[in-house]
Amino acid sequence: MHFHDDSLFPENQEKLVIQAAPYGPEWLPGDADDLPLTMDEHVQAAVDCYNAGATVLHIHVRELDGKGSKRMSMFNELLGRLRQAVPDMVLQIGGSISFAPEGEGSEAKWLSYDTRHLLADLDPAPDQVTIAINTSQMNIVEIMTDDDLAGTSIAKPEYYKAYRDMVVEAGPDFYLEHLERLRENGIQPHFQLATLAQLETVERLIRAGVHTGPLILNYVAIGGGFAGRHPADLIEFVRRTPDGAVLTIESSMRAVAPMNAIGIALGVHVRVGNEDNLWRRKGERMTTLEQIEQMVHISEALGRDIATGAEAKKIYKLGEYYSGANETLARLGMVPNRRPGQRGPMLRVV
């Protein structure tokens, strides 16, 4: 992204879109004070997030025994109810479905490609499905401290090992077909990226005409194979993100607030919720709603406005598709593909 002298002035920045993740699939009841269990509680969590200022909802579902659900029927039911309860929210399904282990000693893993492809067939369709690019380690506990995990199920050695050893399977066989299925069903892919190598893979997909729509990204700074918390890495990812993309910052535990504060100041967007963080200060619990309210407070203190649901949908360009690689590159503010025999630097299309 290019920064002019006036790019940090809040009146020149897009209004802030707050993405809420209140369904914490890795946690069990008792780990967080605000984990929904029943379907009514799932719906109420969405309503509360929206009323607090969030306009994007990152969705997982939970069975009554407290474990993350992998049943498409539950996703369908929740989506149907959410369309009625929070019609102005952008509904975003977590592409892992649920990576939580089935029990102590089990693996924490992303489901098979075939199962994850079923997210493209949900009815009613979500606005977005998150999509990982390139297989990588996802050791979510690597940069968590003992204080972060104190009193939670992940502090148990069996669960800790399960999350330490988790891998995101997302090779070309997966993402090429998944992108096609999402496009066929009018669902926007929301890319979950952690490294510049992954961002470059997405750029190649755009240049090859595989992805021909808005570029919607999360920068995922959770360590363990994903990005870490070094501010320079965050700044470089922002710098390398195309001007026409929509970028959201995602981190973990007590780093969420400072990483998001940087993101808010830079004019990009933020994600919060009990999926990412349980704490305000060391030893002091913080709910998803309190995290949303904190982002609203930080943004307002900097003079940056909060997006409404309708404004968030416009920012995300829901429903937009482009004719091919050339139009996509132009819409995203990227330099065009090199023509055969063309020499010298490439210039953006005016």
From TrEMBL:
This is 3-keto-5-aminohexanoate cleavage protein. The keyword Cell inner membrane does not apply. Keywords: Metal-binding, Transferase, Zinc. Its cofactor is Zn(2+). It comes from the Bacteria. Pfam families: BKACE (PF05853). It comes from Streptomyces spororaveus. PANTHER family: 3-KETO-5-AMINOHEXANOATE CLEAVAGE ENZYME (PTHR37418:SF2), 3-KETO-5-AMINOHEXANOATE CLEAVAGE ENZYME-RELATED (PTHR37418).
